[in-house]
Design a protein that fits this description.
Layout lengths: L2 E3 H8 L3 H11 L5 E2 L5 E4 H15 L4 H5 L3 H9 L9 H12 L6 H13 L3 H21 L5 H21 L8 E7 L6 H12 L3 E9 L1 H11 L3 E5 L6 H15 L4 E4 L1 H5 L9 E4 L2 H13 L7
Parallel strand pairs: 4-5, 4-6, 6-7, 7-8
Antiparallel strand pairs: 1-3, 2-3
């Protein structure tokens, strides 16, 4: 997970350094640690919380009123509130520059630019605005025959490494809703599932990440052990209607016991076959966010 010096936090949040210091000292809202050079450094979570507090202030609430809720409740409310969209244009330009270093492949320049960008913004913003769009672009270039499959795999694995590294640093959420995330049998494109797992973990869910190619029978056996509040399956590969029908029939025996959501291009392509089955299809990240917010809201403590 990234850490940020106060001057960068000010740029990322729109708050002055003085305001950040006052909120830290007077209210204890953010909890910076110390770098090896003894500078105060703030986490991605601190940055996200400061952004949330500023947005609440802009709606007319006072910082004293907000601080009285306590950090944990504020974090919970932040996680169940959609974040404002980041401007696309700066990332579009960077994506173009990154793509230009891939054919021919200039590994040093590509990783220098990518690592530099990811290091200076909160990781969730980097994931949604840079890493996932980058993976989508290289996938399109590969399908068009304009990019070598080895380069496509190299970039995808690099993005996966960053995701796993950040997820390993997240605190365990022992009291959040239990969410099982994975890909069904025959589905080996797991980057979307990883991104979903990170999205849910950042918002306070307990994540059981099963990875790619999970047979339905094994998924059912695992769910019997953990009793999930939600099952999220990522499906990228397209299937014929006949194949999709068989898959949905096999999934229904799980969906009658636990809530099941499927997402991805392959899932959207079979949505016309869902009918009255107990399976929900999510078409985009906004729908996923709303579904997770609804799940988390049921755990949100009532105001006194």
């Amino acid at each position: 997970m990234n850490t940020h010096r106060i001057h960068r936090v000010a740029r990322l949040t729109g708050l002055s350094r003085d305001v950040i210091r006052v909120w830290e000292r007077r209210y204890g809202i953010v909890q910076p640690s110390r770098s090896v050079n003894r500078y105060r450094v703030y986490s991605d979570e601190d940055v996200a919380l400061l952004r949330f507090l500023k947005s609440e202030q802009d709606k007319g609430r006072s910082i004293g009123e907000l601080a009285s809720e306590g950090r944990e409740l504020l974090l919970m409310r932040m996680r169940t509130t959609p974040a404002p969209s980041a401007p696309a244009q700066p990332f579009d330009r960077l994506l173009d520059e990154l793509i230009a270093t891939l054919e021919p492949l200039d590994r040093a320049e590509f990783e220098r630019r990518l690592n530099g960008a990811v290091a200076v913004i909160p990781f969730e913003e980097a994931l949604q605005c840079l890493l996932l769009p980058l993976q989508h672009r290289i996938g399109e270039l590969w399908h068009q025959g304009r990019l070598n499959v080895g380069v496509e795999h190299y970039v995808t694995k690099l993005i996966q490494q960053k995701l796993f590294s950040v997820m390993n640093q997240l605190p365990l959420n022992e009291n959040g809703p239990r969410v099982v995330v994975g890909c069904p049998a025959g589905e080996f494109h797991e980057l979307g599932a990883q991104a979903v797992a990170y999205h849910c973990a950042m918002r306070g869910c307990q994540i059981y990440y099963l990875g790619p190619n999970i047979p339905i029978a094994d998924l059912q056996a695992f769910c019997q052990r953990v009793g999930p509040d939600l099952i999220l399956l990522s499906i990228v590969e397209y299937q014929t209607d006949e194949e999709a029908e068989r898959f949905l029939q096999s999934l229904e025996m799980i969906a009658t016991t636990w809530p099941v959501v499927i997402g991805g291009q392959g899932a959207s392509a079979m949505s016309h076959l869902i009918g009255s089955r107990h399976v929900e299809v999510l078409d985009d990240s906004a729908a996923l966010n709303a579904r997770v917010q609804n799940l988390l809201a049921r755990r949100l403590p009532a105001k006194a």
